[in-house]
Amino acid sequence: MSILVDKDSRVIFQGFTGQHASFHAQDAIHIGTQVVGGVTPGKGGQTHIDRPVFDTVKDAVVQTGANVSVVFVPPPFSADAIMEAIEAGIKVIVVITDGVPVQDMVRVKRYLIGHDAIIIGPNTAGVITPEECKVGIMPAHIYPKGRIGVVSRSGTLNYEAVDQMSELGLGISTSISIGGDPVNGCDFLTLLKKFAEDADTDAVLMIGEIGGSQEVEAAAWARDHLKKPLIGFIAGATAPPGRTMGHAGAIISGEADTAQAKMQRLAELGVSVVQNAAEIGKTVQRSLK
Amino acid sequence: MNIHEYQTKELFRSYKIPVPDGRMAHSANQALSMAEQLGGDGWVVKAQIHAGGRGKAGGVQLAKTPDEVQQHAENLIGKRLVTKQTGESGRMVNRVLVEQIHQIETEYYLGLVIDRASQRITLIASASGGMEIEEVAAATPEKVINELIDPAVGLQDFQCRKVAAGIGLSGKQIVKAGRIMKSLYRCFRDKDALMVEINPLVTTRDGQFLALDAKMSFDGNALFRQPEIADQRDFEEEDPKEVEASGHDLNYIALDGSVGCIVNGAGLAMATMDAISLYGGRPANFLDVGGGASPEKITNAFRIVLQDPHVKVVLLNIYAGINRCDWIAEGLVKAMTDLAVSTPVVVRLAGTNLEAGREILKQSGLNYIHADRLSDAAEKSVKAVNGGAV
User: Fold this and answer.
1) Which residues in chain A have Cβ-Cβ distances shorter than 8 Å to B120?
2) Entry pTM
3) Does A95 reach chain B within 8 Å, measured CB to CB?
């Protein structure tokens, strides 16, 4: 088991024939992901990396049974592509695109109501269940299979944490970067609930950032409901207030947004808080004992 | 992206949101003639900078005669204004806004933000106008009204009436305030704003509403479809290094420490800065080179970081996913050669094509400090700043 994606997931790429989508589709196939095709409007009927190309997501779903989509569509057209996937019945939509307008995501989230789909991203490195399914842009080879669930906002800090854990012999059940935008598809709480029910996950690592309150909300739920160790880190202790630190959502707008305040709240809620990003792996290892 | 008060008010006018009669001036003489053109028996001269706290810092001055307007403009333009939001060096005032003074009856607060928890645009209103809304919300949360807006149908009249009544308005004022709320929402939605604030929104003695002060910021990711907003960007309000960096598709924020940082990914960049601080150093900047960092990009990153005279050591920390260590290594060699870098450089590479990257660095004969891990990299950087053996 795992969460969101596994060896049975049937994956399509939206914006399939672009350079990055092609590269990562090949890497995904390499680790065993079932990439069943892709969508590029106007190129339907063609074949790309030995997979069929469709004009619409609906066509792809009908003809391949796709249930997961990876979106590489450029920012002006991303919202449309996500809604197309929702409407076509895709269950997990991973939006890699960086730079989607915030108000577009507000409308997408409204459109999502009443549909049984989960959106990861935008501006995300994606989701990986090692040795089964990669729907993202992470280097698959650094993710050993194991029993730690990872949720992060950042992509590269996720790699850093996984690297530290794998040095200590700890592998990953599923790892998800939810993306750095202020309005995104899926929050930490939704994923913690899924990890709570996953028999193959022994502990969950949550890597947050300054700005917003979703880490604290997730931890508050976990205190009463998660029967597994929860380890937390918040990046941005040295970030100046009022500045957007690369990720649009990483901004200190008030005292509660600071890394210090969030780490303190997490500790109060029973999370094993990592103060130094260089000690994420060790802290996860200790929490398993 | 932020714009000036006078620009926001111009935008408000096009949405029929009432603002005081006013004109922008670049010089004291121009301010004088603007006051004469506006007429009336009193004016306010407001320094135009992208920072709050202008009133307390002397950036907003009242004048009884056009000559006083000229004098105040003279005192403000060409000087640096230091407010609690500008930092010690303050901001250069290049223009002022001259407005007619009105007799104020009551002050309110009206604003819109994108609420992160509900992921919706939220209307915020309060009868405690003229104060900072965060402080009002912290001290007396019952005095702040939040009204979520459904993006499918937009802000409805009943919501406006509810909010207007909630801040103590009655009779025809409820209808008038409602019109302002709806116009403000349309403006916010049409222009891809992230925040708009009218503080204070006042009623005058003759019963009219006026947006006395106005602040607005916009979504940088939406500027591709908002060319008239993008044109209003004032580069003089930004750090020149940050402007140069954004031109090279690099995300740079200047800080005041001595360890220059070049990292890929915003999260890892912040965590690297935090680690430097934990080992007793101070980061000189935040810099995210992003994915697909070409040798040119790495060279540009080094150039920008080294423009800061306080930088005593540079830490390059790359965890390559979509990036490749061999490209990064090529970039490092090119940067250190092209720029003749003499500052100590700590290099930590990991991830995709690591061996190829290490080989390039070994062949190059470059003089740099090697680090295997994040802890290592932070510790060695701090030691190098202090001139100690690494």
Assistant:
1) 106, 109-110
2) 0.93
3) no
